[in-house]
Amino acid sequence: MTARRVVELLGAHAPVPACDGLLTAAQVAERFGVSRDWVYEHADGLGALRLGGGARPRLRFDPERVADALAPREGSEGSGARHAAPRLAGRRQAPPRTDDGCPLLPVMGDS
To answer: What single-letter DSSP state applies at residue 18?
Structure first.
């Protein structure tokens, strides 16, 4: 509640992250605690949607599909699972979120 009120008071002075719909690679990285480069390297395994044509189309990600791709799978080792979840090396803790999934604003001194 406090974070929402701060955002309301700041109005247009502070960018508010998108909480619904498709995510950019940067939003996926922040939400799931990985680097943006890692997201691009594993885009296909995360279910990336390519917008537009050309050599470098913009990528967007469905947050539920990304979560499914990163979730540990029971019996995936040696069971011939079609798609194994990408492995995370050095995963950092994701930022805290509100009940509806929006990231909270960072507090100075928190790590």
So the answer is: -
End-to-end CA distance of the chain: 21
For the stretch 32-49, pLDDT in tens is 999 999 999 999 999 999
Report the alpha-carbon distance of residue 88 to residue 75 in Å, rounded: 18
Structural domain total, the chain? 1
Can you say whether the dihedral through the CA atoms of 21, 97, 3, 30 is positive or negative? negative
> Which residue stretches of the chain are H helix?
2-10, 25-32, 36-41, 63-70
**What is the CATH number for 43?**
1.10.10
* Tokens standing for residue 107: 């507090």
- pTM listed for this prediction: 0.50
Residue 93 in domain: no
Say which amino acid occupies 20.
D
Q: In this structure, are residues 32 and 38 in contact, taking their beta carbons and an 8 Å threshold?
A: no
Residue 107 included in any domain = no
**Which of the 8 DSSP states describes residue 97?**
B
